[in-house]
Amino acid sequence: MRCRRIALAALLLVGIVQIAGGEPTLGTIPDAANADDLARIVGYNDMASIVGAITQKVEARHPGMHFDLVLKSTRSAPPALLDGSSLLAPMGAEMLPAESTAFTQRWCYPPVMFRVAHDSLTPGALSSPLGVLVRNDSPLHSISMRALRRLFTDTSPGLPITRWNDLLPFSDLGNQPIHPIGLAADTAIGRYLLKGPLKAPDFGVSFHGERQSRDVAAAVAGDRLAIGLADLNMTSDRLRALTIIDDNGIARAPNRATIQSGHYPLDRFLMIYARRDCSGGVDPHARMVLNEIMSDAGQAIIRADPLGYIPLNRTELRAERAKLKALPPELTASTTKILAGLTKAWKDDFNHLHDRLRVVVAPDPAPPLGKRNPGLEHFLEGQGDIAFLSREISEADLATFRDHHRGAAPIILPVANGAWNSFGKLDAVVIVVNPANPVRQLSLRQIDAIFSSSLLRGGRAAHHWGDVGVRAWQNRPIHIAGGDAWSGEESARALTLRRHVMSYRGLHGRWISAAGTGNDASVGMRVAADPLAIGFTGFGHVSPAMRVVPVSVQGQSVLPNKASIMLGRYPLARTIDMLFYRPKGACTSPSILNVAHFLLGRRAQRLIAKSSTFLPLGHAQIGKARAFLERLCQ
Predict the structure, then answer these.
(1) Radius of gyration of the chain from Cα atoms?
(2) Looking at the DSSP assignment, which residues form a beta bridge with residue 69?
């Protein structure tokens, strides 16, 4: 119950909408993400530059999101993550078993660890892969992992290695004792060595433990009989690192290429721990950061970091991304400003029914175009799962999506009708003329003949009113109003008309040239002043000085109203669309389908009706949309 109460309170965050679904359980947003979208991250000082650059990119993608970075030390990270004051725990060493146990007792699960970079070979970096260090005048140049275990522990198979003859039978060091030196068993590196590469409960009786790698390096530099285990970036003009023979008998040189390939036996990583809630899921803000640092752009930030930390290789990246994806599913979605209230209503009801799947929706402060809407841009570039659009997707945004999805277009699913008569709220597009114009109706073919140069519906271009059946005005010219709405970047209404009328049978319609005839906003004024003018606008913008022309559909005149829109009869109605990606040759994500089926269901459609702005889908529209979803996996 405690986790459930925390989760419900977290849903009230300003600027974030969550839609949840899937298996029944709740997630949480801890205190580190507060009502001002300020998230604190406490942890490792050597990761300050990397984490700072990553969080700046997240802030740019999600306006209103801000991070407070308190990066002082590795050991400061676990307590802050445990008490909820830190969103993530950047660390240079693994958490202690006792810390993991404390997490399980408080948060239901231990934290989950993600590798984000290999350690650095650059002098001055605080985290480095480990090396087997000897003096430059040592006769030893390589050592096997088996020999290393027999030298540093007393429990490995085979006789212990205690003297130089055991390693180099004919060296000048003869029967002198080897002095194994390293980090003490209670240090982070000591624990790592025993648990990982050395596979032993403790070091051997002849082992000497120090507190810092620099102390090990100093001890080895002063003792030709010593072999040390310490940070690899401690090599100097007096010390060198040995090549290591791995357990497969392959020599692994201590260099950047071997480390990044994942083959160096004493490799270590920079890590970020994330707290899991009682659903096993990870906070949405934390996912933003983790997704960013594990993206190609995030790894490029690591590559450029002056401390020399080494990016993960492709295999490691796939493994860490899969680890994040395997956690209870979370979908990231963008919405537009005018849809924020409706998406919040959907979220609340969906959370009530299915509270494991979480969809983070960040309402945008800008028009619904990718270059001005960071949330939509995130979706177009493949970093988000769903986008809710309050207009047809623009050609530029389609191109961006295809660039990031191997040429594939997004799946577009209508989930609601726009308003039929509220201007600026996806009201239907209408053809308008002067009240003195005798035209009674226009077919889609006639509208195409007036506005297009492609004429994909057949016939000839209409230059005179007689060309579209107005016999009383047989030779009077048609005056286009609003041509600037498509002369440059298409307006939302122009895009609707072109796609629904001028584009036909899979072919892309093209506009006639009508630059200099005004934009969307001037259509009403031009039509009112000119009986020969024709244009289009939103139904909510119609005034007594203009007349709406019915659209002829299968021989019947259709005007936009609640009935014709919900029955799917008016061809220039606009819809609220849910966009998502379906990988080629694969089924759509079940998590995304859960959201889609909910939005097409009675509860979500009732919420649309209650909005007093938008219209629910009609029965035929819902049936068509559901059939479309079924075909996505066929």
Answers:
(1) 33
(2) 41
Q: For the whole model, what pTM was predicted? A: 0.59
Residue 257 in tokens: 């290429």
| Model confidence pLDDT, tens digit, residues 184-200 | 999 999 999 999 999 99
* Whole-Å CA distances, 344 to 13, 227, 374, 377: 11, 63, 19, 21
Distances, alpha carbon 425 to alpha carbons 310, 482, 492, in Å: 50, 20, 12
As a whole number of angstroms, the distance between CA 71 and CA 50 comes to 11
3 state SS of 443: strand
CB 467 within 8 A of CB 499: no
Q: How far apart are CA 262 and CA 313, in angstroms?
A: 8
Report the distance separating Cα 27 and Cα 15, nearest Å. 18
Distance CA(628)–CA(596), nearest Å, equals 11
Taking all residues of the chain, what is their mean pLDDT, rounded to a whole number? 88
Q: Is residue 191 a contact partner of residue 185, using CB atoms and an 8 Å limit?
A: yes
Kindly list the distances between the CA atom of residue 88 and the CA atoms of 17, 29, 289, 354, 607, in Å, as whole numbers in the listed order: 21, 12, 9, 26, 36
Question: How does DSSP assign 353-395, residue by residue?
Answer: H--SEEEEEEE-SS-SSGGG-HHHHHHHTTS-SEEEESSPPPH
d(C-alpha 98, C-alpha 76), whole Å: 15
Angle at 381 between CA 345 and CA 360, to 5 degrees: 25
Half-sphere exposure for 633 (CA within 13 Å, toward CB): 9
Q: Distance (Å, rounded) from C-alpha 434 to C-alpha 206?
A: 100
Query: For residue 576, which phi and psi values (nearest 5 degrees)?
Result: -85, 125
pLDDT tens readout for residues 485-507: 999 889 999 999 999 999 999 89
Which residues is 553 bridged to in the sheet?
Answer: 556
Residues facing 229 on adjacent strands: 132
